[in-house]
Amino acid sequence: MTTARRVALVAVPFGTATAGYVGIFLARYDRLPERIATHFGGGGEADDFMGRATALWFGGGLLLGLGLLFTLSLLRPGGAAGRRLTTALGAGLAVTLGYPLIATVLVNSDLGDPAEARLPMWHLAVLLPAAAVVGWLAWWAAGADPGRATERPVAALSLADGEAAAWSRTAASGALLAAAGLGLGVGVLVALFASLPAGLVALAVALLCAAFAGVRVTVDRRGIAVRSVLLPRPRIVVPLRAVAGAASVRVDAVGDFGGWGYRIRPGRRGVVLRSGEALSARLSGGREFVVTVDDSVTAAALLNGLVERRSRERD
Fold it and tell me: What is the pLDDT of residues 130-156, one digit of tens each?
């Protein structure tokens, strides 16, 4: 029921925002000018415009697309850890986007000239607290993520001399996907209502988050390799000769590593895209390398088998 509740906590705000925007737009379609004001300066005056039909499709598509993105992120197979934050960000973003889009329709209604439209900046004083409250309520209603479990020792996978074996799996970050969605929403809002260059910067950051929101983790005779799903570089490699053993663990992204991404802590480092299941490699120097990925038991078993075979070959 936790997953269904979290999906509802994201889908309902985005569905409400989408239905509200499209419904109000269609109800007032004949009362809107052919081109409507979509960007407003610091004084609330209109300074950029968009075709009426284009604005309808753009706003509706933006809300629907981001709603689907957050919903699919919550439905992704694997551990549920880290999805509480995704739920809160998704619910808050629905308000952050839905409010100004609906307000834009209202201020353009019954105008002969869209240049007469005004959207005072006091709306921000309503928008930001409303988004924060909705996000907090979603955080509270979503319930806590699973707590951290103890390390799970994994028996080595038996490998004959000369036998080839490899394991590979992708891992995704709900937090970085949420950050990409949030950056996209903020970038669009800033570009439309404030500064185009600043909006483009936010959009660039959103694209960067999206690029690193998924990685491919590979374990084979060479060791462990982690690279972006979308980009060939950067690529992190832990050679097999540096690995002393492996296990499956659960990590808390914030509590254990202070956040998401490539993290370095005393005695340990790793690629932490979410909280939950992770592959832990004990390195020969006493340090630990961690990468969050599903099916880490299989990866650890293969890694232990490769380490054992390397030891046999040395003997």
Answer: 888 888 888 888 776 554 445 677 776
